[in-house]
Amino acid sequence: MTVEEKVKDWLVDEGMFRDKKIEDNAEFHYVIEFPNDNIMDVVKPKGKDCIIVGCATQVAPEHIELMVSSTPENRRSFLFDLQFGINRYFVDFDLNVNQDLLQQFILTDVIYEDGLTKNELIRTIKRVFKAKLHCIMLIDKKFGSISKKDDSSNENSMFV
After folding, report:
1. What's residue 145's pLDDT?
2. Whose CB among 21, 34, 59, 80 lies 3.0–4.6 Å from 29's, allowing a Cys bridge?
């Protein structure tokens, strides 16, 4: 059984598999849903011996407005706390920041093929999601909650 077949079977078994994307620079790219209504990606780059689990999230315009109305010191403190907190999850991150305003964040983790098991894949997916949850909760804590309309299509795939 190939790595691709194994990974897809595990994702299907756990009810996470949503779609397969065809990409020139990937041996396979699966769009998954974990938990419900949260889109993530599982990608095996071409020529690499690893799997990347990732999640990209756009900051809601309402949250950006709340950030704009806060003090520059509060925004800088938030960015420091965010980076410090994400590091606790042992995931890689890329923050898109413009004038101390967080616009988007991308969280990823890598599993090398020699350590790829179903257990490690699922734990990595959960770790990336919990790091995302940390980011969202910290935004709410620092700048206030917003009530969102019911938008059940959370299309935040990192390659959309």
Report:
1. 78
2. 21
